[in-house]
């Protein structure tokens, strides 16, 4: 059975991460995603390596790991948007598409005659999603942006990392391009919302999505902590600002993560570490009390946890229903029995490597299961097929 979006065509004019991440989400759900790439160059991320994929003979290719992480399931066409022929091809593709994704600098596609107002003349139902650093309006609308700078500008790095006076303290970025990823997620949600609205109204839409806006929206509880209290949140390392105990704790052979989420779990936790009286102590009996008295609580917990191994404690806490786990390196993630059971890592046929390992979508549909059988495309791999279908092959 085809995926839930197998009736949808997406024209993906975006590159790097946020827009392509959205496109990959849609492709995983069965959409026909046509990735338009610069003639002879392609997406910048094709060159963002090493590492580069190795072919069947063990030789490095030009397919960077970064590019491979975000372009699964798409078809690639090379076009020169500086030429009238290239722009004509984009217009022809947009006329037969449901969604356009783009992350050009504000105003660039308008000047090319490829803006929303231009393309909707031929396709009134078109859903056009513009992804930029700062949005289509405002004093920074023309400025370029990358994930790292937005993590800082949007406040995320002010609450990530240890305090300035702690060893290794100071602002830290998240270990993956989280703003790009979340912007791609919001883009996917936005275009699907517009599709649902089009079903009712017959009208398309233009979505204006800014990375800085996404970063601000992602502040979530930290933003509300400030708005409610008037106190600016600070970096607390791995300590949760509102729920305790939640931290990384040393044990005999390494570290474990504890994520005790409520008073009932804390009682089970206290019993498991051999300190049942903690759950009735006024200093620790409620979450609010534990947050207020965290230094005293952590002195007790660190001493108690020091006498067991990672496997010992994780096993005991699992039996007791207390959320905990090891801090896996990436290689160990793929050895987790639960990750294996969920088949999050799949082998996909690839024209150069034979097989390509891919971390796949976490979405599981009972009635419209997803398929993962199309690797990220080679540059221009589908140019002939796509243009021939538009009767444009001879003009380009």
TrEMBL record:
Instruction: Name the InterPro entries for this protein.
Output: CoA-transferase_III_domain, CoA-Trfase_fam_III, CoA-Trfase_III_dom3_sf, CoA-Trfase_III_dom_1_sf
Q: Which PANTHER family match?
A: SUCCINATE--HYDROXYMETHYLGLUTARATE COA-TRANSFERASE (PTHR48207)
Query: Is Kinase included in the keywords of this UniProt record?
Result: no
Entry protein name:
Acetyl-CoA:oxalate CoA-transferase
Q: Name one GO molecular function term.
A: CoA-transferase activity
Cite the EC number.
2.8.3.19
- Gene3D superfamilies attached here? Crotonobetainyl-coa:carnitine coa-transferase, domain 1 (3.40.50.10540), formyl-coa transferase, domain 3 (3.30.1540.10)
> What keywords were assigned to this record?
Transferase
Could you tell me which SUPFAM superfamilies the record lists for this protein?
A: CoA-transferase family III (CaiB/BaiF) (SSF89796)
Protein species of origin: Pseudoprimorskyibacter insulae
């Amino acid at each position: 059975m085809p995926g839930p979006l197998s009736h949808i065509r997406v024209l993906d004019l975006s590159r790097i991460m946020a827009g392509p991440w959205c496109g990959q989400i849609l492709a995983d759900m069965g959409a026909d995603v046509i990735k338009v790439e610069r003639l002879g160059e392609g997406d910048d991320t094709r060159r963002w390596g090493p590492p580069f994929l190795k072919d069947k003979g063990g030789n490095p290719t030009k397919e960077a790991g970064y590019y491979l992480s975000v372009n699964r399931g798409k078809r690639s066409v090379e076009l020169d948007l500086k030429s009238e022929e290239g722009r004509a091809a984009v217009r022809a593709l947009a006329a037969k598409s449901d969604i356009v994704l783009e992350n050009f600098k504000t105003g660039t596609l308008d000047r090319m005659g490829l803006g929303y107002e231009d393309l909707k003349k031929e396709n009134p139902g078109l859903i056009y999603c513009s992804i930029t650093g700062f949005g289509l309006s405002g004093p920074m609308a023309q400025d370029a942006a990358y994930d790292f700078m937005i993590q800082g500008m949007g406040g995320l790095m002010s609450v990530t990392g240890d305090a300035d006076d702690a060893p290794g303290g100071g602002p830290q970025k998240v270990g993956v391009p989280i703003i790009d990823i979340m912007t791609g997620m919001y883009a996917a949600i936005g275009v699907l919302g517009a599709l649902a609205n089009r079903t009712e109204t017959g009208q398309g839409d233009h979505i204006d999505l800014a990375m800085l806006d996404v970063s601000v929206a992602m502040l979530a509880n930290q933003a509300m902590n400030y708005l409610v209290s008037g106190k600016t949140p600070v970096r607390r390392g791995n300590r949760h600002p509102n729920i305790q105990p939640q931290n990384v704790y040393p044990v005999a052979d390494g570290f474990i993560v504890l994520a005790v989420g409520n008073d009932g779990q804390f009682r089970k936790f206290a019993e498991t570490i051999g300190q049942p009286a903690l759950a009735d102590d006024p200093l620790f009996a409620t979450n609010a009390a534990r947050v207020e008295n965290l230094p005293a609580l952590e002195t007790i917990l660190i001493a108690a946890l020091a006498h067991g191994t990672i496997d010992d404690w994780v096993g005991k806490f699992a039996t007791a229903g207390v959320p905990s786990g090891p801090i896996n390196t990436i290689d160990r993630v793929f050895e987790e029995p639960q990750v294996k059971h969920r088949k999050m890592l799949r082998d996909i046929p690839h024209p150069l490597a034979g097989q390509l390992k891919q971390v796949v979508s976490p979405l599981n549909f009972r009635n419209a299961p997803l398929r993962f059988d199309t690797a990220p495309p080679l540059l221009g791999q589908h140019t002939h097929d796509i243009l021939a279908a538009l009767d444009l092959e001879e003009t380009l």
